[in-house]
Design brief:
TIM Barrel; alpha/beta; 2 domains; 6-stranded mixed beta sheet; Lyase, Ornithine Decarboxylase, Chain A, domain 1; 25% strand; 5-stranded parallel beta sheet; 24% helix
C-alpha cells in the first residue's frame, strides 16, 4: 500500500498515487473520505483505496458506491454503521495494540464486532490492521515487540482470517526490522517519499532519496541605508548599506519563522533571511546586486551548496512531515518523471514569472 494521505505528505496526492501504482503498489491509503473520493475521480474504479481514519457512518453509502474501503475505528463505530448501513460496504477493522489513537482496545470489543458482522450482511469485514508507535526506535524494540504480540492475540479471535487482508507494517516496520511482519500487505508512506529517518546504528536495506526541491525568485532588489528596519516589528536593523532582496513566499506558503536560521541559496551561496517572515513575502540580505528573477532555493542544491530537509529539521526543531505538509496549495508542484516534465492540477508549466514559488519533484518509476 502506498499511503498518500495529507496530499501525499505535501507532494501532490494524484501524481504520487499514479507514480506509486505504476511502480507496483496495489493499494492506496488515505486519511479521509474526501481524499479517497478525489483519487477515485482521478483514477480507475478498480484501484483499491482504504481510508485509514474516521469516516462518518452516514457516508457509508457514498463510500460503497465509490468502491472505497473504510476503517472500523471502534466498537461504537461498528454499532452505528450497522444501524445506518443502507447497502453493503467493505471495512478493515483497526485494533489498538498500543498507539492509543483509534481502534478496538480489547478482545471483548473485537468479538462483539464479529458478532455484529455475523448478523448484518451489509457489513463485510475484509481486513484487520494495527499501527506501531515505535517502529523507528531501534535502540529499544520492546514496545514494538509487545504491540506485535498483542496483534497476534487479536488475530486469534478473527474468524476466516485467511480470507481477510491482514496488515500492520508501516514504513519503519517494513524497512528496519529483521522480523518481517509483513502479513498480507505493508503500508509505506514516509519511506515512499524518502522521508524515513535512518537510525545511525541500523542501516536501511537500500538508500532512500527525497524527491523535493523548493524554489522561488527575487521579485525586487534594492539598496537600503544603514540603520533601517526590515520587515514587521523592526527585528532586523541594517548595520551598513545593504542589498535587500524580496522573495514572494511567506508563512502562508509554509515557510515558518523557525526556518529562518537555515537561510537560502542563490548562485551557490548561502544567504540569510532577515526580519520577520511575512504572510506572503520575506527578505534576504544579499552579498551584491542580483537581477530580478534570480532563482532562490529553499530546499535543494545550488552549485556546491545544498539545503536538505535535515537542515530544516535540525534548525527549525520540526519533523519532516510537518515541513512538507505545511506547504500550501498556492505553491505549484512541478514534476519530473524520468526525462519528461509533467505538472499537478492546473499549473501546466505556465511562465515562471507568474509563480511566486514552486515545489519541484523528481522521481523515477520502478516496477
Amino acid at each position: 500500500m502506498a499511503v498518500v494521505k495529507a496530499n501525499a505528505y505535501g507532494h501532490g496526492i494524484v501524481e504520487i498515487a499514479r507514480t506509486a501504482l505504476a511502480s507496483g503498489a496495489t493499494w492506496l491509503g488515505v486519511a479521509t473520505l474526501d481524499e479517497a473520493l478525489l483519487l477515485r475521480r482521478q483514477l480507475t474504479r478498480d484501484t483499491p483505496i482504504l481510508v485509514l481514519g474516521y469516516v462518518p457512518p452516514q457516508h457509508l453509502s457514498l463510500a460503497s458506491r465509490s468502491k472505497i474501503t473504510v476503517t472500523g475505528i471502534s466498537l461504537a463505530w461498528v454499532q452505528e454503521a450497522s444501524r445506518l448501513a443502507q447497502e453493503p460496504f467493505n471495512f478493515h477493522l483497526k485494533v489498538d495494540t498500543g498507539l492509543n489513537r483509534i481502534g478496538c482496545k480489547t478482545l471483548d470489543e473485537v468479538q462483539e464486532v464479529i458478532s455484529i458482522v455475523s448478523h448484518n450482511p451489509k457489513l463485510n469485514l475484509s481486513g484487520v490492521f494495527t499501527h506501531f508507535a515505535t517502529a523507528t526506535d531501534m535502540t529499544n524494540t520492546s514496545y514494538f515487540q509487545w504491540q506485535l504480540a498483542r496483534f497476534h492475540q487479536f488475530l486469534e479471535v478473527i474468524p476466516n482470517r485467511t480470507e481477510k487482508l491482514i496488515h500492520c507494517a508501516n514504513s519503519g516496520a517494513t524497512l528496519l526490522h529483521t522480523d518481517k511482519v509483513f502479513f498480507d500487505m505493508v503500508r509505506c508512506g514516509s519511506a515512499l517519499l524518502g522521508l524515513l529517518k535512518q537510525p545511525s546504528e541500523h542501516p536501511l536495506p537500500f538508500p532512500l532519496q527525497t524527491a523535493i526541491s523548493v524554489h522561488s525568485t527575487l521579485d525586487l532588489v534594492k539598496q537600503v541605508n544603514a540603520s533601517e528596519k526590515i520587515s514587521y516589528g523592526g527585528t532586523y536593523t541594517t548595520m551598513q548599506t545593504e542589498w535587500i532582496g524580496t522573495v514572494p513566499i511567506g508563512y502562508a506558503d509554509g515557510w515558518r519563522q523557525n526556518f529562518k536560521p537555515v537561510g537560502v541559496l542563490i548562485e551557490g551561496k548561502r544567504l540569510p533571511i532577515v526580519g520577520r517572515i511575512a504572510m506572503d513575502q520575506l527578505m534576504i540580505s544579499l552579498d551584491r546586486m542580483y537581477p530580478i528573477g534570480t532563482r532562490v532555493t529553499f530546499i535543494g542544491q545550488e552549485g556546491n551548496e545544498t539545503i536538505t530537509l535535515n537542515d530544516i529539521v535540525r534548525e527549525g526543531n520540526v519533523l519532516r512531515g510537518e515541513i512538507l505538509c505545511s506547504f500550501s496549495s498556492r505553491i505549484p508542484r512541478i514534476y519530473k518523471s524520468d526525462v519528461s516534465l509533467i505538472s499537478s492540477g492546473n499549473v501546466a508549466l505556465r511562465p515562471l514569472t507568474l509563480l511566486g514559488a514552486i515545489i519541484f519533484f523528481s522521481f523515477t518509476c520502478h516496477s
